Amino acid sequence: MNVTVDVNGQERSADVEPRLLLVDFIRDHLRLTGTHIGCDTSSCGACTVLLDGEPVKSCTMLAVQAGGHELTTVEGLARGAELDPVQVGFHEEHGLQCGFCTPGMLLVSAALLERNPQPSEADIRWAISGNICRCTGYVNIVKAVQHAAGLRAARAAAPTEQVTAGAPGGAE
Amino acid sequence: MVPAAFDYRSPTSLAEALDLLREHGDEAKVVAGGQSLVPLLKLRFASPSLLVDIGRVPSLSGVTADGEWLRIGARTRHVDVERDESLDRLCPILREAAAQVSDPLVRNRGTLGGSLCHADPAGDWGAVMLALDARLVARSAAGERVIRAADFFQGPFTTALQPDEVLTEVRVPVAGRGQHASGVYLKLERKVGDFATVGVAVHVRLEGDRVATAGIGLAAVGPTNLPAGEAARALEGRQPTEEVIAEAARLAAGAAEPHDDLRGSADYKRDVVRVFVQRGLRRALAQAGPEGGQA
After folding, report:
1. How far is CA B226 from CA A101, B104, B107, in A?
2. Helices A85-92 & A138-157 angle (0-180, nearest 10)
3. Mind listing the pLDDT tens digit for each residue in B40-88?
4. pLDDT at residue B231 greater than cutoff 60
5. What are the two backbone dihedrals, phi and then psi, of residue A24, each rounded to the nearest 5 degrees?
6. Which residues of A touch B44 (CB under 8 A)?
7. Within this chain, do residues A72 and A89 fall inside the same structural domain, yes or no?
8. Would you call A54 an interface residue with chain B, using a CB distance cutoff of 8 Å?
9. pLDDT at A158
10. Residues A103 and A71 placed together within one structural domain of the fold
11. Do A98 and A49 reside in the same domain of the chain?
């Protein structure tokens, strides 16, 4: 059956089987491979996408259920060359090691900051609690989100000034 | 993992959904958030020939209250309960329980009604609804019926719902005049998102210094969510002294039917029930004081 989804601001349509999982639709049909398949059992959050702005597990949803909704994948975070503050935060605070969980971590962090621009450490740990990092790099992930919150605030205060990724280990 | 093939319909009215269920009977399965059903489809533990997605049926979600009932639409998501601050006054146990269901991502999709209909013996909402003496409203093309929570859970993953019925609403009785109510949900879990090792819901309504009604529901310690009726009755009509609380906790532990598994031994789980009932009652009774809730 036909499914039409707004993916990262673009309308995408495809003829799919009802049993097709959203994550397979995203990866195999749309060729957006930034969304990862980790556990495939709704346990790890590697397949996180934003559905109408809220993080969900795309391995535990049918593609047809996303019809008519807005989807954001990790590819939709940056605006052209301008990285999202969470991406800058993860870059500058070394919020990743192997990187496998990172797309999911970025999206839950972006959704958190959208709802709660100044989260406490507990708020951040709550927001990422459904996403597993098997490098166990949580300390730096929390720091990265805190840094991203600061970058967002700076960007809001000076909207014309672009926030970009610094060099590795770069200055703040 | 790939589910077995099925047909998919996404009706835009309840009448249309109910007609589909009448036509297809137990070959059809209702899906809302899909957080329990989609994993079962992927494992092929369930292979219905038709999925009836009620995600586009209007007016099945949201919370409303009148003097008698708090009404929760069956498709209300866990996260909607978790964020609804009006419930702090109306029925605080609901937000406390919602925040402990699985993880934040699952709570963004999963629904209260879907969780109840899935009827996992380790489900959180079943224990809460037993403690609250909630009524579950089932609709079919033939009409509507109201099922008490205590009659709803019939076996592991088995409810009183007929194949042609949809759960539309959960009704929680609101405390009467002169009563003050509160409830607590305590859950032991190994990690965020895990099923409960033990879950205990307690709910009390006070009249003056006496317990007017009490409810206790258990999760993960039996073939279904279990009510601890004898324990609740041991509280009713009495002043809730430490001795009375300890007796209720002992009786609730006796009502549990846990098994040894990876999460703990049966003896351990039974004792967690006792401790949680004791803790839960102490906190619920303190919360229910004159400033307490309504449901």
Report:
1. 38, 26, 23
2. 130
3. 999 999 999 999 999 999 989 999 999 899 999 999 999 999 999 999 9
4. yes
5. -75, -35
6. none
7. no
8. yes
9. 82
10. no
11. no
Tell me how many domains chain A contains.
2
Q: What is the mean pLDDT of residues B169-193?
A: 94
B168 and B190, same domain (yes or no) = no
pLDDT of A50-94, one tens digit each?
999 999 999 999 999 999 999 999 999 999 999 999 999 999 999
Question: Rounded mean pLDDT of chain B?
Answer: 96
Quick check: is B77 in a domain? yes
Beta-carbon separation of A40 and B35 below 8 A? no
Q: How far is A129 from chain B (nearest CA, A)?
A: 6
pLDDT at position A48 over 90: yes
Q: Is B41 a member of any domain?
A: no
pLDDT digits (tens, 9 = 90+) for A134-158: 999 999 999 999 999 999 999 999 8
In this structure, how many other beta carbons lie within 10 angstroms of the beta carbon of residue B265? 12
Distance from A154 to chain B by nearest Cα, in Å? Answer: 28
The three-state secondary structure class of B193 is coil
**Is B106 at the interface with chain A, CB within 8 A?**
yes
3-state secondary structure (DSSP) of residue B103: coil
Q: What is the CATH number of the domain that holds A17?
A: 3.10.20.30
The phi, psi pair for B245, rounded to 5°, reads: -65, -45
Structure tokens at A159: 């909207």
The CATH number of whichever domain residue B108 belongs to comes to 3.30.465.10
Give yes or no: residues B169 and B194 share one domain: no
Residue B102 to residue A19, Cβ atoms within 8 A:
no
Shortest Cα–Cα distance, B105 to chain A (Å) = 5
B186 lies in the same domain as B115: no
